[in-house]
Amino acid sequence: MELYTYFRSSASYRVRIAMNLKGLSSEQHFVHLTRDGGAQHSPAFTHINPEHLVPVLRDGEATLTQSLAMLEYLEERHPAPALLPAASADKAWVRSLALQIACEIHPLNNLRVLQYLERTLGVTPAQKQAWVAHWVGLGFAALEVHLAGDARTGLCCFGDAPTLADCCLAPQMFNARRFGIAMDAYPTLGRIDAHLAGLDAFRKAAPGAQPDAE
Asked: How far apart are CA 205 and CA 169, in angstroms?
């Protein structure tokens, strides 16, 4: 397998975690998202992914974009250890948590959105920070209620073993800390994240542990 990745990309981080949990390795191609206007916009990478986004996963003749599609693909191709529970309702619950993070929270603090706010709309650094804090806070508040109030929550988002939801949570928690967002209001998220940080699969996938880290 080949993975086109960037150390600080939340979506790439998710896939790195899942691959580590499943004991899978890949040849990594590093796509710097900010240097020289962003390598994701180069003709060579655009040919691979016209969305101008990482990650991209290549497995034989298959070329996959969108991190959650990759997580589902890895789950189907390499089902052990499972990153989804057995029961249909529990599967849906884990997927809903992952989608809440990946579709409701993350896009609004993604690089290209923040670049548009700065470069096109001319927002100030303080306004950009307020934007991030508002949308992350709104999403985290709902996620905290979901997890704190559900008996299925354990050391991880579902039980005591990582699932797709945890693959999504850890990168978003990293982003929140990077933007200096206060986390006191989200004790369940903080507790789960602290547990995940002690697991090898998460530690080795962390941005600072990547060969392209700056």
From this structure: 13
Confidence (pTM): 0.96
Beta strands at 27-30 and 2-5: parallel, antiparallel or unpaired: parallel
CA-CA distance, 113 to 175, in Å (whole number)? 14
Contact status, residue 66 vs residue 54, Cβ threshold 8 Å: no
Give me the domains of the chain, ranges plus CATH numbers.
2-81 (3.40.30.10), 88-202 (1.20.1050.10)
Helices 111-119 & 125-148 angle (0-180, nearest 10): 150
DSSP 122-170: ---HHHHHHHHHHHHHHHHHHHHHHHHT-TTBSSSSSBTS--HHHHHHH
Q: Decide: 93 and 158 in contact? Cβ < 8 Å.
A: yes
Which residue type is seen at 139? G
pLDDT tens-digit series, residues 110-166:
999 999 999 999 999 999 999 999 999 999 999 999 999 999 999 999 999 999 999
Beta-carbon contacts of residue 171 (< 8 Å; ≥ 6 apart): 10, 11, 13, 14, 17, 106
Three-class DSSP category at 69 = helix
